[in-house]
Design goal:
globular; alpha+beta; four-stranded antiparallel β-sheet; 144 residues; DUF4268 domain-containing protein; DUF4268
Length: 144
């Protein structure tokens, strides 16, 4: 087991190493759609690429998620392992809509031997997810 400081250092090293290994400006929060953001997620048991829908207006939130549901077959063609969750509970207890693609290999942010495959997964998967967003951005925006 790691101390809090050691764990924090490894998490920081993980993300710094990812940025150096795959230097690129990612879309992430810069979608210009409120409550619609892309994220990289990693913890001691899993890694995933996520699209979080958490618009502060409940109706807009549902409309955005419904619009993504209407595009599900198209997204599944690009990313077959995509999972749609209309009630995903975050670590802080908040429930959001999350569309995500999990890394299907064994992973732990605390095991450096698993980092490289995670980085490659992140790069390939987020690139596809961003391209999908750019291709269907106008349709997604129509929801709100």
């Amino acid at each position: 087991m790691f101390s809090k400081e050691e764990a924090a250092h490894l998490r920081k090293e993980f993300w710094t190493s990812f940025g150096k290994s795959f230097p690129r400006k990612w879309l992430l929060y810069n979608t210009t759609i409120k409550g619609y953001s892309f994220k990289f997620q990693a913890d001691r048991k899993e890694a995933m690429v996520c699209l979080d829908i958490d618009h502060p207006d409940e109706i807009a939130n549902e409309l955005l998620y419904d619009q993504m549901l209407s595009l599900k077959s198209l997204l599944t063609n690009e990313l077959p392992s995509v999972i749609y969750s209309d009630n995903y509970t975050l670590d802080n207890g908040k429930t959001i809509h999350r569309i995500y693609i999990p890394l299907e290999k064994k992973f732990s942010i605390y095991n450096k031997n698993t980092w490289r495959s995670c980085y490659e997964f992140y790069f390939a998967t987020m690139s596809k997810l961003e391209l999908f967003y750019y291709e269907y951005e106008d349709i997604i925006r129509q929801a709100i």
